[in-house]
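Interim report to the steering committee. The following record documents the input for Oxidoreductase (331 residues).
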Amino acid sequence: MPRELGLIGATAIAVRAVLDPARRREDVRVRAIAASTPERAEAFRAEHGLPVAHADYRSLVRDEGIDTVYVSLHNSAHARWAAEAARAGKHVVVEKPLCLGRREAHALRRAAGDAGVHVVEAVITTGHPWQAAVRELVASRELGELTGISSHIAFDLPPGAGYRFRPELGGGAFHDTASYWLDAVQAVVGLGGATASGHSEFSGPNGVDLEFDAALRLPSGVRAELRASLVGPYRADHEFRFTGGKARLRNFLRPAAGPFPVNLVLQRDGGAREVRSFPAVSYYDAQFDRIMALLARPARPDDAVVERITVLESAYLNALERCARTGRAEA
């Protein structure tokens, strides 16, 4: 029997992350959609040829013909509807970030455990071979000891572009980009014992963070930094610094647009340069396959996502506190 999916949110990301990959498989069917209004749900159903349009989110969650729910709403709504779906006995896949705070993350972990279901945060970069390659660089000390990680992620969005310019809905540069940064740091060196800080002036429309700087200090002494922006120019880079050189990933989000290769560029002190290329892959296809395989296995508590959300909240709250205290971002 095919897995039957329901979509909460009539969004473009639902098309890229679920509908398109599902059409390439025979063991998965997208059964239903629920949107902010019944009319929007029906329009989405008709456009994409889905069997059912539900009147509201709760109706979809209660649909006994669905075993898995995909949530792509504004960030502040993720936790509520993920929890409701889990309590209804559905597996849940949630667009990053899973939620906005550690209490919500722990509540979702409990709800998943009580129901015996998976609750999965969808971060498209998770599991790409470049992560294992950088881990091996660290373990082998090929470039020496890892000393720092720097990520620069920027999008050039028009003012007022949906929830991203509304902080009460979980918008802002940090919540829009931090999952990619935290996923990379956790995959390479882990987040255990990290101390987080954040800096922003929160000077955008509605007090949103158009730009945000975050930093982690890890017990090993490694410092991981993020520069995030919603006002461009576009950039998506990771740099891993070692005592004997550095490794760079330029435009690591390019496979979000379709099958593209990713290059890891090693620059050794002294001038030697090496490019290690990874085969072309579509992030969304790979993510869908990875998550479908995960859902086929017995559910287990996901401590890694709780760790990521805890760090995310800590950095964001630190920035809010510093801005409130000084009236500006601190250097």
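The longest helix spans residues 303-326. The committee is asked to note this result when reviewing the revised timeline.
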